[in-house]
Amino acid sequence: MSSKTPLSPVIIALDFARRAELDALVDQLDPSQCRLKVGKELFTLFGPEIVRSLQQRGFEVFLDLKFHDIPNTTAAAVAAAAELGVWMVNVHASGGAKMMSAAKTALLPYGKDAPLLIAVTVLTSMHSDELAAIGVAGDAPAQVSRLAALTAECGLDGVVCSAQETPILRAQSSDQFLLVTPGIRPAGSELGDQTRVATPADAMAMGSSHLVIGRPVTRSANPLAALKAINQSLGY
Ligand SMILES: O=c1ccn([C@@H]2O[C@H](COP(=O)(O)O)[C@@H](O)[C@H]2O)c(=O)[nH]1
């Protein structure tokens, strides 16, 4: 384990529209407390420079752009993420096996420096009731299980799912298969648009390997205290 590798499984989702707000939060954080996630809003506003600036501060970055395109385009995008030196990058599993395999193959030249490659199954904002309207038969756990099996077959490192599905996925996957879970809500915090949720401690107990946490920390009156309380609840 490198000296900059955090012990905590927490990944903070940096969903900000203003650079000053982002900097005010990141100034309080230390790479030993968490990793950081750059998503669509931040990347669209500030581009690769924002990733580099977080890396220069010693943070490992999850580039959460959820690529979903034809295999050639997705593979090139994943390779671009590898050039940026991110710790983790993702695609949508619903892009299919050819797309995921092309993305995995694109990372081979990077060897041990390749980012972890994971695939989004069913967004944690979605309830099973919504799936029929997009042509998915069955409930969220069944669809997550199906897409996670496909992801594993394609040789990716893991999936994004809700903590609620992790017991099923732990039973069907190797111990090394990463289960990265957003939809994390400490007891009493607002759900917002998330529907398949769990507390940090429950998520870890059920089998999550990493917890993606945004608003419960970033929109807290005291983000550092909120993060420390979460880490403490997990024994870090
Ligand atoms: O299924 C998914 C995939 C990605 N996300 C992202 O995680 C964070 C969650 O933020 P909160 O503020 O804690 O809800 C956000 O950046 C999403 O884009 C997800 O929530 N669910």
TrEMBL record:
- Name the pathway: Pyrimidine metabolism; UMP biosynthesis via de novo pathway; UMP from orotate: step 2/2
Keyword Transmembrane helix listed? The answer is no
- Record key words, sorted: Decarboxylase, Lyase, Pyrimidine biosynthesis
Q: Which residues form the Orotidine 5'-phosphate decarboxylase domain?
A: 9-230
Q: Which Pfam families match?
A: OMPdecase (PF00215)
The reply on keyword Lyase is: yes
Q: Which sites bind substrate?
A: 15, 37, 64-73, 124, 185, 194, 214-215
* Top enzyme category: lyase
**Superkingdom in the source lineage:** Bacteria
BP-aspect Gene Ontology terms: 'de novo' pyrimidine nucleobase biosynthetic process; 'de novo' UMP biosynthetic process
* Protein name as annotated: Orotidine 5'-phosphate decarboxylase
Q: Which species is this record about? A: Zhongshania antarctica
Q: Which gene encodes it?
A: pyrF
